[in-house]
Amino acid sequence: MNRRILLVFEKEPQHISAFREWLQLGQEDYDVEHISMEEAFLQRVNDFFPASCFVLLSLDSISPAHRQSFLQRVRASGSVAKLVLLVAPELEDEAIDMVGAFADDYVLTDSPKRLRLLLKQVQEKIPSCKMRCQSFNLLKMGLAPFLMAQMRR
Questions:
Q1: Domain coordinates of the chain in residue numbers?
Q2: Taking the model in full, what pTM does it have?
Q3: Is the predicted pLDDT of residue 128 greater than 70, yes or no?
Q4: Tens of pLDDT along 66-109?
Q5: Could you give the residue ranges of the DSSP H alpha helices within 77-141?
Q6: 100 Rama sector, left if φ>0, alpha if ψ -120 to 50, beta otherwise
């Protein structure tokens, strides 16, 4: 069974090939798709996401002027069971404002332990999705190997 991963990279597309190489080191097959434009992502969200999936979305990958409307449209798609924002510390106030209306939770990029805890909780609560679907920009944080290990479970 292929696991589906959606990468929303607006600023650093050069990391996509490195991420694909890391995934190929695993034992499972992955379908990796890169969508850099917000509209393309929204057009494909229902096709790409299985029902009841978990999405970890890097808030800085969305242009500031469109963040709320973008998240609202993702939520309205009905395909996302849990939407968690990954935010830089300087965007924490904005993330707090979005939790509830547009997202379920947020995690700071400088809190890898909290992210690990969140991923474990998601796997326990939504075992059928098993991290099939993620949108993230985590290579700078050094969390990509951790995420790959979680996805292999």
A1: 3-152
A2: 0.57
A3: no
A4: 788 777 877 777 666 677 777 888 889 988 988 988 888 888 87
A5: 92-98, 112-125
A6: left
Domain 3-152 carries which CATH code?
3.40.50.2300
As given in the structure block, the two tokens for residue 42 are 């929204």
Spatial contact of 14 and 140, defined as CB atoms under 8 Å apart = no
Burial zone of 110 (CB within 10 Å; 0-12 exposed, 13-18 middle, 19+ buried) = exposed
Cα separations in angstroms, 89 against 59, 69, 110: 11, 22, 7
- Report d(CA 58, CA 71) in Å as an integer: 11
Order of all β-strands in the sheet with 80-87: 53-58, 80-87, 105-108
